[in-house]
Amino acid sequence: MASSSSTGDAALLSTEGLTKSFGSFKACDGIDLSIAGGEIHALLGENGAGKSTLVKMLFGVLEPSAGAIRWRGDPVAIRSPAAARRTGIGMVFQHFSLFEALTVAENIALSLDDAVPIERIAKEAARLSREYGLPLDPNAHVADLSVGERQRIEIVRTLLQKPELIILDEPTSVLTPQEADRLFETLEQLRGEGRAILYISHRLEEVRRICDRATVLRHGKVTGACDPRRETVGSLAGMMVGGEVEGIADSGLSPGEAVLVETRALSVPAQTPFSISLEDVTLAVRSGEILAIAGVAGNGQSELFDVLSGETLVADAAAVRIDGRDAGRLSISARRLLGAGFVPEERNGHGAVGSLALSQNVMLSRHASDSRAYLAGGPVRMLKEGSVRETARRIVAAMDVRKSGEDPQASSLSGGNLQKFIVGRELDRKPRVLVVNQPTWGVDAGAAARIRQALIERAREGAAVLVISQDLDEIFEIATRIAVISGGRLSKAEPSATMTRERIGRLMGGIQGVDEGTELADAS
Amino acid sequence: MNLFLAMLPTIMTAATPLLLAAVGELVVERSGVLNLGVEGMMIIGAVTAFAGAQATGSPYAGMVCGILAGAAFSLLFGFLTLTLVANQVATGLSLTILGLGLSGMIGDSFVGTPGIQMGALPIPGLAEIPVVGPILFSHDLIFYLSILLVIAVHWFLFRTRTGLELRSIGDNHDSAHALGMGVIRVRYLAVMFGGACAGLAGAQLSLVYTPQWTENMTAGRGWIALALVVFASWRPVWVLVGAYLFGAVSIGQFNAQAFGFGIPSQFLSSMPYLATVVVLVLISRNRRLTLMNTPACLGKPFVPDR
Amino acid sequence: MRLEIERRATRSSLYAALSPFIALALTVVAGGIMFAALGKDPFSALYSFFIAPLTSAWSLNQLAIKSAPLILIAVGLSVCFSSRNWNIGAEGQFIAGALMGSILPVMAPDWTSPLLLPIILVLGMVGGALYAAIPAILKAEFNANEILSSLMLVYVAQLFLDWTVRGPWRDPQGFNFPQTIQFSDSATLPPIYAGGAAHWGFVFALVAAVVTWFMLRRTLKGFEIRVLGESSRAGRFAGFSSRRMVYFSFLFSGALAGLAGICEVSGAINQLQPVISPGYGFTAIIVAFLGRLNPLSIVVAGLVLGLTYLGGEAAQITIGLSEKVARVFQGFLLFFVLGCDTLILYRIRLVSSRRASGEEAAQ
């Protein structure tokens, strides 16, 4: 099967000089690509390299600014997703295009162009899910399903259209290692049937494992095409970021004795119908160490973060302790005054406000802790804009934040630069406790390395750092100890030296089963 | 009991404009759009229907005018919120303000003019059934339309492919767009349907309920209709229940005024408004229920990538 | 042909400054077309609507009287709307303030004291704030939609006022007219300058605008309001409480609406009547948006909308148009303001239906 042909005429789909401009910015710039039947073709690139823009053009969601798309050698204009489906292209989205309020069968029906009776769809879906090992209940409401199950809906509804080319956008970013393995089996089955798969990822290991060819994008341009099985992770990464990635020196942290942040048998009921309840969560982070909490998205990470930060208060004040004091009933500002800093997962609308200037975003988390520096006029509490701006400048310099203009709106920064600013805003206070949720989610490799380095440095200076992350590479890079969160329960933390990916994977599938020593075949 | 049976037909007539406007708004909100201009569209429908009936001498022609005017007026809202992505709350308010102003200006010459009433159309056969017949089957055309509309909207939303698409757009417009649905087109149609229903509701007021033109004759019914949609948790059949409950409250207070009871009429007149607030509170207290039922994209602006 | 909009990278400060003027110009054009359609000469009609009221001292005083409540209410609403609390029941809070402030002048007309007037004004503010507290409590504690509850309370307040002036507070020597007794001199808000008609309410409005502007732009409270308006999640992260903001914004705007109400009664009408407001509470919503929620711009916007009231009265007298024309103008204006504000955040393009890139791709 391998890279059967790279010439245009045998290709199922090819593009010539495909370009998409947003104003003066070219998200994709003259992309040439060809995909043949019976191959798994990887599209590699950092966040912001133009992968998503490219596939959105192929699927008719975005309209190309220039260039051509050919299907079996003939030029086609794909004007809508419906047109893409008619052509024979199916797509599994990264952020699932599912409707929470509807059932599985209704969701599938919506992706079909003809009005097919729901009962027929349910039957057909059941057959496909058996055939490809993707168990699904057609009458379940999507809101009640796990992330892995939701992805199965996406795949089944794509398969129902019998596509010749299937596009998968970062499919494993939300799966446990075991779930990912099963996905790979399904993909190999599809390849065996002669279908083409365009596999978008920035996870180099899995690309090397399952892909026959790879096209690498950087800054909207093709920077390389190769057989990934003949490359190393390092050489692939080099093509992605344009030069060697600076590795992080071994963290070499030596934890102290003092426990600076801890929870004791913390249980919190779910706050909304869409959130997870926390059950009996016990953790402790000592001075000078980084505790990482691994887990698949939606298993209680943001709920745990909210409880630690004080955005959700708990009944038992002693269930959360910061720097030796009961903090469960303290507001987020009071916890900051105890020396804690917090970086939430969501940048826009949580950690920062996009429409406010960077300097005003400094005030967001520091108006209470730095009130003497930033406020004047006693009870009137006037803003001292000069000193706030000064802090913003300091953060920008310390974290190498790239921006345009003196004090721009936060929304004008790229994801990576805004994240560097938000992390820098907390580090600038030299917090004794730092809680970070998904520190490098959707951030380019350069910024990610900078942020991880900064977290390690902070721990080395004696702070207790708690990192919640879905990225196992990141966790093994920086953590002193690792715990796993699953279904609102937290496993016992283990030293990262003795922890394995395989064990993390099993813990992600269910804490209790593993602790009791039961074999869990997979996460389903 | 007899008194209640005697009141039933008037309760139904009083409930019909609420029902019509609320069912229309329900479809609009199910598609993810919050149109607070119901009151404005309703009063435009009322004045146009009155004018149309005066001009043609036919209440049915007047009714059609009211429907068309409501739909046309809602297009203003659609253009601003869907094409220009203006704030839906503010635009809905301005639709109400403009509607009240325009209707006042148009209707100035009609004040005091006797209206043309739309007569009852007893359904042959059914209307003769004792007790039930006069209550259910001896109404005007708009009443029958309102009941048919509830059934049709329920069928449309939950039994048709287009209805499924409309619900999915209200749940997640980005996903719907990614699947290739015409989010803005569907929303325009929903907004116009809502406008047409509000227009018909207005027509009912000026042709059936009180066949004359008085300024501000909708008297907040558009707003009560909005509250009914929340009360019904976006389910058509519950809108019917809610509208009839409100019809009972307002007819009840009229009768209480007639009997006196020594309660000032103004206090009795406030009952429907206070009842709205109370119902709103009772329903909204259950955050879980409201959160689960509210269309997830309600009131959120949608700007497609291109 | 179709309209396409595209989000700008940053908000356009050019259009932020221009859009109210574009909206005003469009309103004048639309008004001219409307006058022409009604068979009037658009130019003379527009002149008598917008210009003539500005040419005499008497009408300038009237402008101040009409604008004062609009500015006072809209300044309060700017705090509400900036923090995304949709108080649209200011009309009811206006009435509640007027009623509460009238307690002493109506029930104890003989009591005079230098403190009387300040007490009346404070009671007016308290009345408005208390009435606004109802939707605030319902929203903060019971999650009930504040738009609907605050609006329903307008009707309740109007009916209650109607009952008071026809029932318990009716002037016994008033020939059965539904109105209270006249306020005594010491309970009357005096004119700003001797011989003028405009009362101190206008000065209060200017002071409220400046103080609120300072609060919004220069203090932590203003920062809190802006952050919570943008995102309650980010607000919570900053340690601000959306719930407390519901109370703050409603009480603040309710107090100003109540002050507007008692000033109108004590300074202009001098007694309570069944109807004491030509819809100031609703028109103030337009004022707040036209002034783009900036209290200083709201002063200008309040004068513009005050002018439409005067113009409506003038148009009725000089060219025989219904004074309802004023409300139509106000509706137009809000529509155009909202439409033009799109330009601040988005680029608007006219695109031909045939897609340019599709043609290129086909070559």
From TrEMBL, chain A:
Predominant location category: membrane
Pfam families the record matches: ABC_tran (PF00005)
SUPFAM superfamilies (alphabetical): P-loop containing nucleoside triphosphate hydrolases
Keyword line: ATP-binding, Cell membrane, Membrane, Nucleotide-binding, Repeat, Sugar transport, Translocase, Transport
PROSITE patterns: ABC_TRANSPORTER_1, ABC_TRANSPORTER_2
GO CC annotations on file: plasma membrane
Any GO MF annotation of the entry: ATP hydrolysis activity
Domain of life where this protein originates: Bacteria
Family indicated by similarity: Belongs to the ABC transporter superfamily.
PANTHER family linked: CARBOHYDRATE TRANSPORT ATP-BINDING PROTEIN MG119-RELATED, GUANOSINE IMPORT ATP-BINDING PROTEIN NUPO
Name of protein: ABC transporter ATP-binding protein
Organism: Pararhizobium mangrovi
Automatic annotation (TrEMBL), chain B:
GO molecular function: transmembrane transporter activity
Keyword set, alphabetical order: Cell membrane, Membrane, Transmembrane, Transmembrane helix
Subcellular location field: Cell membrane
Alphabetized PANTHER family for the sequence: ABC TRANSPORTER PERMEASE PROTEIN, SUGAR ABC TRANSPORTER INTEGRAL MEMBRANE PROTEIN-RELATED
Any Gene Ontology CC annotation: plasma membrane
Transmembrane segments: 31-53, 60-86, 92-111, 141-158, 222-246, 258-283
Protein name: ABC transporter permease
Pfam family, one: BPD_transp_2
Domain of life where this protein originates: Bacteria
Species assigned in the record: Pararhizobium mangrovi
Membrane topology category: Multi-pass membrane protein
Predominant localisation class: membrane
TrEMBL record, chain C:
Protein species of origin: Pararhizobium mangrovi
CDD domains, per database record: TM_PBP1_transp_TpRbsC_like (cd06580)
Localization per record: Cell membrane
Membrane topology annotation: Multi-pass membrane protein
Protein name stated in the entry: ABC transporter permease
UniProt-listed InterPro entries: ABC_transp_permease (IPR001851)
UniProt keywords, alphabetically: Cell membrane, Membrane, Transmembrane, Transmembrane helix
Keyword Disulfide bond in record: no
A GO term from the CC aspect: plasma membrane
